[in-house]
# Entry
Amino acid sequence: MGFLQKDKQKEDDSTDYIAATNTDVNSPLRQIAATKKKRYGAAVDGEFLFKEKDYADLIARECSIVTPNGELKWNATEPQPGKFTFESADAIANFCQKNNIALHGHTLFWHMGNPDWLPYPPTLEMIQRHVTGVMGHYRNSPVLKSWDIANEIIADNENETDDPTYGLRRGVKPELIRDLFKFAASVDPTKKFYLNDYGIEGATWRSSRFLKMVEYLKNSGAKIDGAGIQSHLWFSTAYGFDATGFSSVLKRLNDLGVKPVITELDIIIDTPLPDSIQKLDQMVADGYKRFLDICFAADVDTVITWGITDRHTWIRHPDWMPKKTYRDNPSVWQFLRPLPFDENLQPKLARNAIAQAFMQAP
Ligand code: 9MR
# Structure
């Protein structure tokens, strides 16, 4: 029996939890996650979701939450000043509704994914118009439950900021982010609000600044419910993972009453690369298991991978990603296997590792 041929899951969350009592490692990840009152999901790309039925079926089967890859970014929703378009984002929202999947809104504020006319940072006036238009459109959505209010506001590194305290990107002031969060709460306080960032999965310069910013938002009375920990993780045969540092980031967030949420997980294997695809897949799987065990020990309840299949992954694209041809399969892309399903949508060791982590979660 093919892995994908089982019936699509159409239950609502509560029936997901009930149906979840009889799961095994091959059950849909959304159901396995539900046995622990958790969610599994993926970033989806509308461009493929409505063209590739096998991909859409896989998303519907496995996911209880999805994030649009690009459809809710500023360049998609407000391509001209004050002119809003929601066609592609709404198509994803409708898909979610049909398949009983929650939608995570990504993102209202970022330095990328913007139309050319938009300065960074935008003025507060531009931000308010944007937030009013976009959050307002989804105010009554039955599926959209959470927003990345701001994404990647911390500078890439300490040489690229004029702000030693919060480490914000040049030109961004903490007050602007506070005002953005406060304004968003005036438009739609019913959703969960996240501050989302990368490179905070350990004791790093970025994670210490991120935590300070979370604290600042809390102390200034802004509504902030969650911290989006993107988790584009890099592993290699040469270096490990800062488990202790990551655990303390999670603990600090929990202590602040800001829920850590894994928003963009994928695993990139850096050079030196292992010498076979099998070893590579095992490394990726081990990475998932190791990382998720730490997350679940800290009570994380939502895990979103950035894509679900190696067929569609952002890491194929940037020039700076490591590239290597394997002797046993001379395709230049073979080493890029960061996600739970392969290019043919067959489950990989990584999928099994994610399932095991959910099953073993406290
Ligand atoms: O995966 C996304 C890619 O297709 C887009 O071209 C790019 C720019 O909009 O954004 C990618 O997604 C990013 C996400 O929005 C924020 N964190 C990093 C993700 C990978 O680059």
Notes: The pocket of 9MR is lined by residues 69-70, 73, 112-113, 151, 198, 230, 264, 314 (CB under 6 Å). The radius of gyration is 20 Å.
